[in-house]
Automatic annotation (TrEMBL), chain A:
Renumbered residue ranges of the record's region Disordered: 504-530
Source species of the chain: Actinocatenispora sera
UniProt cross-references to Pfam families, sorted A to Z: SSF
Lineage: Bacteria, Bacillati, Actinomycetota, Actinomycetes, Micromonosporales
MF annotations from Gene Ontology: transmembrane transporter activity
Signal peptide start-end: none
Name of the featured protein: Solute:Na+ symporter, SSS family protein
TrEMBL record, chain B:
Designated name of the protein: DUF3311 domain-containing protein
InterPro entries reported in the protein's UniProt record: DUF3311
UniProt keyword terms in alphabetical order: Membrane, Transmembrane, Transmembrane helix
Transmembrane segments: 32-50, 62-84
Disordered, as annotated region: 1-27
Pfam families found in the cross-reference section: DUF3311 (PF11755)
Length: 530, 90
């Protein structure tokens, strides 16, 4: 058995090293202007075309954690884990309608982060600070989870210690520091070729070995009904359908509010690049649907996780079903798959800190060069923080935090997403709405226990409607309720503030900024209205 | 307010509508075709449509194959709206 692990490990290390070389070389790729500028380091020169954007955003949204956690959820609960598929179908039309306007207004004004936009749109540094802090706090555990993905693979190859993880992350930190967003963009090509190859082989080969899909689902169905109370089922039950739909919808809204998604979108060179990608990115959703089915295959194959770590299910399945050379490639695909989003997320979080905290409150006259330096340093710190999370705290803690992260990032929806469509909200009303959404979201999450892990609080995101006095056993996604409360409070507060004639911030953007395209004059070139 | 003609604008400009007041955008995100995008946003969220085991397709329960098929709905919607938008800009 250990002989097999040696083969796996050699292949894993070779591919990992190759990717590191690519990451360093990326600094010279596509002739960057001055690397010491956030437009270059943090957004790859805002010049990425359709193909690069497809790989970059794909690598950004479909993370290693997704590939590990979604099948693990299916393995544990069945149909509920499949919410990832409708979630990644729903998200693209939303981006097509809304986020495209963020690209335009950012192109014209030179915005780098969603908080930059909020500051200009509502004339409120306070609101921008809230958006920035929310973004950073929501992104940190997400980076930590990428490490959980790598960790699951390392565990399966027989590593009990943390040092390989530390090495992998130091290398990642070094080339992100040097190459900025170009590194994950280039590595995404390699990662995706590996992932697509591995998954296509997997969904043909494993069902063939297990006697077909029909048999796999029958085995899974039998397994779920043999547990009392049933832990899951192959279709949804009576009580979790509303939760399924609201979780898919809420996750889709959250996804494009995450700073790293915005970074991927802003790095593209024109509106058409984004629009074309909204039709092309669902190819990954198809892949994700197939990956989710690995959870059922693991049930049918009798795969067991290492200890109680459900995230090791997919690596264990590969280890069990494939010859060791192919398992090595599959492990490398997951491991490298973690590097791409971790790099983009750390860049996005660093940019938020630099633009909306450092430049806003600490060094108002920061030059572009100084900004780039700060971002580079902070991207290191953010990764280091994520590493400490995993090494010193229980990974389960990061998973819980990521759950909370989804709920809190949703609270920026009125300022960022609706702000792109309308200037109707009052700046202070948005602040009050944000606070209300946060408070109710936190309270709901706090009251959710998890019998499986023995958590009394923060055990999941499915909130029982009966707690709100409804006479039903249905559950609903916490983030969805929180954002509805946020919107209601913001709307009512806006009406009150407008009636009281409270001073509102000035809007620095103009209607036609939202439809600007490649080649349009930027704000420094736009003649000032007389 | 805004400049009617800007040098270096890319060829794919919006329909240059004659405007009386200066600050009407030259391009617009508005289009009746955008309503088409509601389909891929709403349909995948209606669980009663697909929450069944049978009919199976290649051994896969309807719950799974139909939701994977909804991906085509999303691709179709965004593609049509994009192409129509491009053509109208001529």
């Amino acid at each position: 058995m250990s002989g097999g692990h040696v083969t796996e490990l050699v292949i894993f290390i070779v591919l990992f090293a190759a990717v590191a070389v690519i990451g360093f070389w990326a600094a010279r790729w596509r002739k960057p202007g001055d690397m010491m500028h956030l437009n270059e380091w943090g957004l790859g020169g805002r010049s990425f075309g359709t193909w690069i954007t497809w790989f970059l955003v794909g690598g950004d949204l479909y993370t290693a954690y997704t590939f590990v956690a979604v099948p693990a959820l299916v393995f544990g609960a069945g149909a509920m884990g499949f919410f990832a598929v409708p979630y990644t179908v729903v998200v693209y039309p939303l981006v097509f309608l809304v986020l495209i306007r963020l690209w335009s207004v950012s192109h014209r004004h030179g915005f780098v982060t969603p908080a930059d936009f909020v500051r200009a749109r509502f004339g409120s540094p306070t609101l921008a600070l809230l958006v920035a802090i929310t973004g950073i706090v929501a992104t940190m555990p997400y980076i930590a989870l990428q490490l959980v993905g790598i960790q699951a693979v390392l565990k399966t190859m027989g590593f009990g210690s943390h040092w390989p993880l530390v090495i992998a992350f130091l290398v990642l930190a070094a080339y992100t520091f040097q190459s900025g967003l170009r590194a994950p963009a280039l590595i995404a090509f390699v990662k995706d070729l590996l992932i697509y190859a591995v998954i296509i082989v997997t969904v043909i080969y494993i069902p063939y070995k297990l006697g077909g899909f029909g048999h796999i689902f029958d085995a899974a169905s039998k397994h779920f009904s043999s547990t009392t109370p049933p832990t899951g089922s192959i279709v949804l039950g009576a009580n979790n359908q509303l939760n399924y739909a609201t979780l898919a919808f809420g996750s889709a809204l959250a996804l494009f509010l995450y700073p790293h998604s915005v970074t991927g979108v802003l790095a593209s060179k024109s509106r058409n690049v984004i629009k074309r990608n909204m039709s092309a990115l669902p190819a990954y959703s198809f892949l994700l649907g197939l990956i989710a089915l690995l959870g059922f295959m693991a049930i049918a194959a009798g795969t067991t996780p290492i200890g109680k770590d459900g995230n090791t299910i997919v690596p264990r399945l590969f280890d069990q079903m494939f010859p060791s050379w192919f398992a090595g490639i599959a492990f490398a695909a997951v491991g490298i798959g973690a590097l791409v989003p971790a790099a983009i997320m750390s860049i996005a979080a660093a940019n938020l800190f630099t633009r909306n905290i450092w430049r806003e409150y600490i060094k108002k006259d920061a030059s572009p060069r100084h900004e780039a330096w700060v971002s580079k340093i902070v991207s290191l710190l953010v990764k280091f923080g994520a590493l400490l999370f995993i090494v010193f705290l229980n990974p389960q803690f990061s998973i819980d935090l990521q759950l909370i992260g989804g709920v809190i990032i949703l609270q920026t929806l009125p300022s960022v997403a609706l702000g792109l469509l309308t200037r109707w909200f009052h700046r202070w009303a948005l602040v009050v709405g944000w606070a209300a959404g946060m408070a109710i979201g936190m309270w709901m999450l706090y009251t959710i226990p998890n019998p499986k892990t023995g958590h009394l609080h923060f055990g999941g995101s499915a909130f029982a409607l009966s707690k709100l006095g409804f006479d039903t056993d249905w559950t609903i996604y916490t983030g969805f309720v929180a954002v509805i409360v946020n919107l209601l409070v913001a709307a009512i507060a806006t009406l009150i503030l407008k009636a009281a004639k409270a001073p509102d911030g000035a809007d620095a953007t103009k209607p036609d900024d939202y439809t600007a395209d490649e080649g349009d004059p930027k704000v420094s070139e736009v003649p000032v209205a007389v | 307010m805004t400049e009617p003609e800007s040098g270096g604008a890319s060829g794919s400009d919006g329909t240059a509508r004659e405007t009386t007041s200066g600050d009407v955008p030259r391009r617009s995100d508005r289009s009746a075709w955008n309503w088409l995008l509601l389909l891929p946003i709403v349909i995948p969220l209606i669980t009663p449509l697909f929450n069944r085991d049978h009919p199976r397709l290649g051994g896969i329960p309807m719950f799974y194959w139909l939701q994977i098929a909804f991906i085509i709905l999303g691709v179709g919607g965004t593609t049509i709206v994009y192409q129509v938008g491009k053509r109208r800009k001529g």
